[in-house]
């Protein structure tokens, strides 16, 4: 990481005063896999920010991370959340001038559902989670969409954020959209040109043209910005932390959906003991990891929910404060003491045949562009050694890590989860669920997660989420560290949005200084 930073510092930074965007913007992105335009099958993160400007959805998520009307101007639920009826705006047109109808929404959703429910196919599609929310979808007239819910709860509104396509083009390349822009030119691996959609239902954007210049590596994206080949870039490189907003550029932090966690295997002794898990939690200084290793390019969280939003429980800080004395006390209470003075705690076996050493197998996998996760694991290992817990850190490939997690062949594992747009942590916390690699089993938590999926109002949903996080603090199934962040580096300000987030990194450009 240090070598990369030093290399980038030697490149000349163009002198250009930061100004508001005019009628055009050139954006640098990383793209090598996208060879055709298929908004329902996105191949790369940066490309999804392109699609976000071209394809609108029924519902959008606002700066407070709450569902708001988009193509649907209103909705209501009936039958305790069994049925949701969405009413479309009447003045929405695709970029060729043809009107949006409920049939387009239904055809798009049905295509997603058919793929997700196809047992013969291994490719379920990016929006496959829609099947967990929607049992059936139909149109009663041109402006009314009726959804029968698989899960009768508030979270279904977050599932309605998929891009809506023309019914005749759900399987076509470069389908038309109803967004502020249309794709006027696409040269795979080189460039994507957007022009304004003259029929956009919210008016004419000030920025008439957006050109995306594609690069093959993250480093090349950053170099293109430093040599002023582009106005704006998206990057998750830690090296981007060197940039601060000033006269020559702006650095806009954005939160990704990547939740970094330290997993603890409950089926492996001694991590079946909550006192041992809490001792580990008390020794890990996530704030220090964030500042010294990730250079501040993270958003701290102590639970699976996004801090600073309506869903986060701010009353649990005392549970997550670093406390070495408390960590040692909990280990002592659990019967783990250093009887032979070798610096590693041990515990007598029940049959009197000797003792167990407090030794944990610690696995980590690394990303191609950053070595920060391995550095994080080694730092945590050093901290654990200070309270008498011995660890052996081993770096694995992602596929080998997946094998370890599925088999339960680990004690500690430093891994990340790609969190869904719907704020529902049940897949991590419920018994035998897909992301519950820790083998965590709590009847209280299972009940709370089930209760969450019966709430049809934002207030009820929030109340249950707060209870889930309180139970999480009490049980300490694993340790949440932070959501990863990236940076939008730009010489032209283009948005007033408070929550610039991954997959929507040009969010707000369509209404910025709108004429």
Topology (SSEs and partners):
Blueprint (H helix, E strand, L loop, with lengths): L1 H8 L9 E2 L3 E7 L14 H10 L4 E3 L5 E3 L2 E7 L4 E6 L13 H15 L17 E8 L2 E6 L6 H4 L21 E7 L3 E6 L12 E7 L2 H9 L5 E4 L14 E15 L9 H10 L2 H7 L5 E3 L16 H4 L3 H10 L12 E3 L6 E3 L1 E7 L6 H15 L3 E7 L1 H10 L4 E7 L7 H4 L13 H10 L5 H18 L2 E13 L1 E2 L22
Helix pairs in contact: 6-9, 13-14
Computed structural class: alpha+beta
The tally of helices reads 14
- How much helix is in the residues? 25-40%
Using the alpha-carbon principal axes, give the shape.
globular
What value does the Rg take, in angstroms? 25 Å
**Ranges with pLDDT <50 over ≥5 residues?**
1-16
Strand content: 15-25%
The count of β-strands is 21
**Mean pLDDT figure:** 93
The largest sheet, given as strand count, sense and whether it forms a barrel, is: 11 strands, mixed
Separation, N- and C-terminal Cα atoms: 45 Å
Outline the structure in words.
By secondary structure, the protein is of the alpha+beta class. It is built from 14 helices and 21 strands. Strands 2, 9, 10, 11, 12, 13, 14, 17, 18, 19 and 20 form an eleven-stranded mixed sheet that branches. The protein has a four-stranded antiparallel sheet with strand order 5-6-8-7, covered by helices on one side. A hairpin with a 6-residue loop joins strand 15 and strand 16. It is globular and about 80 Å long. The two termini are 45 Å apart. Residues 1-16 have low confidence and may be disordered.
């Amino acid at each position: 990481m240090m070598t990369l930073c030093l290399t980038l510092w030697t490149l000349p930074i163009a002198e250009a005063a930061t100004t508001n965007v005019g009628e055009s913007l050139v954006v640098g992105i990383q793209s090598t896999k996208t060879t055709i335009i298929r908004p329902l099958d996105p191949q790369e993160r940066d490309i999804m920010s392109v699609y976000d400007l071209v394809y609108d959805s029924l519902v959008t998520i606002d700066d407070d991370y709450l569902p708001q009307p988009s193509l649907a101007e209103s909705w209501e639920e009936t039958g305790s959340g069994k049925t949701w009826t969405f009413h479309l705006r009447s003045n929405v047109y695709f970029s060729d001038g043809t009107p949006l109808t409920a049939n387009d929404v239904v055809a798009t959703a049905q295509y997603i559902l058919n793929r997700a429910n196809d047992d013969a196919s291994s490719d379920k599609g990016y929006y496959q989670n829609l099947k967990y929310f929607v049992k059936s979808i139909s149109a009663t007239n041109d402006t009314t969409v009726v959804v029968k819910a698989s899960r009768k709860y508030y979270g279904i509104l977050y599932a309605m954020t998929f891009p809506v396509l023309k019914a005749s083009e759900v399987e076509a390349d470069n389908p038309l959209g109803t967004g502020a822009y249309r794709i006027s030119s696409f040269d795979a691996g080189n460039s994507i040109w957007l022009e304004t959609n003259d029929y956009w239902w919210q008016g004419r954007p000030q920025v008439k043209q957006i050109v995306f210049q594609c690069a093959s590596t993250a480093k090349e994206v950053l170099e293109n910005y430093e040599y002023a080949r582009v106005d704006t870039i998206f990057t998750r490189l830690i090296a981007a932390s060197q940039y601060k907003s000033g006269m020559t550029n702006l650095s806009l932090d954005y939160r990704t959906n990547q939740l970094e966690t330290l997993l603890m295997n409950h089926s492996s002794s001694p991590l079946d003991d909550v006192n041992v898990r809490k001792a580990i939690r008390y020794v890990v200084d996530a704030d220090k990891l964030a500042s010294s290793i990730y250079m501040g390019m993270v958003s701290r969280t102590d639970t699976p929910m996004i801090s600073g939003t309506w869903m986060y429980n701010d009353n649990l800080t005392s549970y997550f404060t670093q406390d070495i004395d408390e960590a040692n006390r909990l280990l002592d209470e659990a019967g783990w003491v250093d009887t032979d003075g070798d610096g590693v705690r041990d515990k007598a076996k029940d049959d009197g045949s000797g003792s167990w050493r407090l030794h944990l197998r610690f696995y980590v996998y690394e990303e191609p562009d950053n070595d920060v996760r391995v550095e994080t694991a080694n730092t945590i290992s050093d901290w654990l050694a200070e309270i008498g817990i011995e660890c052996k850190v081993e770096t694995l490939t992602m596929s080998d890590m997946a094998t370890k997690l599925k088999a339960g062949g680990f004690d500690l594992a430093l891994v990340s989860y790609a969190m869904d747009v719907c704020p529902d942590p049940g897949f991590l916390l419920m018994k035998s669920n897909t992301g519950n690699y820790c083998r965590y089993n709590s009847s209280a938590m299972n009940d709370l997660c089930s209760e969450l999926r019966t709430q049809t109002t934002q207030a009820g949903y929030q109340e249950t989420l707060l209870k889930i996080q309180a139970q999480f603090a009490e049980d300490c199934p694993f340790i949440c560290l932070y959501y990863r962040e990236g940076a939008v580096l730009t010489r032209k300000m283009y948005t007033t949005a408070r929550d610039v987030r991954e997959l929507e990194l040009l969010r707000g450009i369509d209404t910025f200084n709108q004429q």
